[in-house]
Write a structure and sequence with these properties.
Blueprint lengths: L1 H23 L16 E3 L2 E3 L22 E2 L3 H10 L6 E2 L17 H18 L22 H16 L21 H15 L11 H8 L12 H14 L8 E5 L7 H10 L10 E5 L14 H8 L7 E5 L2 E9 L2 E5 L5 E2 L19 E4 L5 E7 L11
Helix pairs in contact: 1-4, 3-5, 3-7, 6-7
Pfam families: Peptidase_C54
EC number: 3.4.22.-
Organism: Rhinopithecus bieti
Length: 397
């Protein structure tokens, strides 16, 4: 009887903590991110300079954009469209219960898994759609920075807590849908891109069947001694992602593999061997290697001597980003301006979206506004870079 009573108390505690986290991470604060017009902005290998919005003008020497093939003397809207097109994966609530637990949310503990998902998602976007791809509806996303949390958050907390106590849960999806139709796209190429866009997002859905969804990643993490509700470190997540890609049986993913560097060292021969082992066709375009390099940049605090190295990684054409941040608080870093890093924050609780339904809404999978932080404000950073297609491997670190 005592054991049964203890189990019930533990379940009630878990449900209360989950409901509290759902409220805590549902707040949307009034914040605004400002960028200088006097310095270039690098976003995953692309350079933007807002000062030179006239495409006929050239960037000055020493502007900081050193990747000539990827310099864009573009305007703010082009940068926003590029940023918003990246896939944003955050805390979710009300998704199907995770096996072996009472959890229906990852609020408060799943941030590194979410940033790892974002990193892999960008790798898949690069492989299937290319770096030049942007989502046609990106600029239609409403900027949540203009909102603030109100009594709606309190009501949400109350409803979530009551539902958790009663054991009832109603699966909900946002009522707004983009209503994609074939006639919306000007050609077959755009239609193909949108099919892959939706397919990639569906692979990260919060259901037991999603190839790279939270449920599957947690299952793979059990071999590392992790379970739902634990905090996952970046190095552990790297190996979980490697296993998830290895076990994926989707025909589109058979030529893709992940290499996790050991002791911060990437051996070219090992990368080539791993890529060769995944070959399923003679078409080089079907093959890609995602290289993940777990590394700590400093001791108690981030060593600022690594700043130029981090900038160099984020300037690579095939970079898929960096994940890490403060202990037990992971972010997805995608770019920089001067000494500040640009990132997407997974610490925002959104409702479950059923990605198995036709034309599921895409808005909540794209971040409406970037955030910035000074490089030295982070205590730990972990590099994740992708150099896709073995025939075009780059080894400049």
């Amino acid at each position: 009887m005592e054991a049964t009573g203890t189990d019930e108390v533990d379940k009630l505690k878990t449900k209360f903590i989950s409901a509290w986290n759902n409220m805590k991470y549902s707040w949307v604060l009034k914040t605004k991110t400002y960028f200088s017009r006097n310095s270039p902005v690098l976003l995953l290998g692309k350079c933007y300079h807002f000062k030179y919005e006239d495409e006929d003008k050239t960037l000055p020497a020493g502007s900081g954009c050193t990747i000539e093939d990827h310099v864009i003397a573009g305007n703010v809207e082009e940068f926003r469209k590029d940023f918003i097109s990246r896939i944003w994966l955050t805390y979710r609530e009300e998704f199907p219960q995770i096996e072996g637990s009472a959890l229906t949310t990852d609020c408060g503990w799943g941030c590194t898994l979410r940033t790892g998902q974002m990193l892999l998602a960008q790798g898949l976007i690069l492989h299937f759609l290319g770096r030049a791809w942007t989502w046609p509806d990106a600029l239609n996303i409403e900027n949540s920075d203009s909102e603030s949390w109100t009594s709606h958050t309190v009501k949400k907390f109350t409803a979530s807590f009551e539902a958790s106590l009663s054991g009832e849960r109603e699966l909900k999806t946002p009522t707004i849908s983009l209503k994609e139709t074939i006639g919306k796209y000007s050609d077959d190429h755009e239609m193909r891109n949108e099919v892959y866009h939706r397919k990639i997002i569906s692979w990260f859905g919060d259901s037991p069947l999603a190839l790279f969804g939270l449920h599957q990643l947690i299952e793979y993490g059990k071999k590392s001694g992790k379970k739902a509700g634990d905090w996952y470190g970046p190095a552990v997540v790297a190996h979980i992602l490697r296993k998830a890609v290895e076990e994926a049986r989707h025909p589109d993913l058979q030529g893709i593999t992940i290499y996790v560097a050991q002791d911060c060292t990437v051996y070219n021969c090992d990368v080539i061997d791993k890529q060769s082992a995944s070959m399923t066709s003679d078409n080089a375009d079907d093959k890609a290697v995602i290289i993940l390099v777990p590394v700590r940049l400093g001791g108690e605090r981030t060593n600022t001597d690594y700043l130029e190295f981090v900038k160099g990684i984020l300037s690579l054409e095939y970079c898929v980003g960096i994940i890490g941040g403060k202990p037990k608080q992971s972010y997805y870093f995608a770019g920089f301006q001067d000494d500040s890093l640009i990132y997407m924050d997974p610490h925002y609780c959104q409702s479950f979206v059923d990605v198995s339904i036709k034309d599921f809404p895409l808005e909540t999978f794209h971040c409406p506004s970037p955030k910035r932080c000074r490089f030295e404000n982070g205590s730990q950073l972990y590099n994740r870079i992708l150099l896709s297609k073995c025939s075009g491997l780059r080894t400049s670190f």
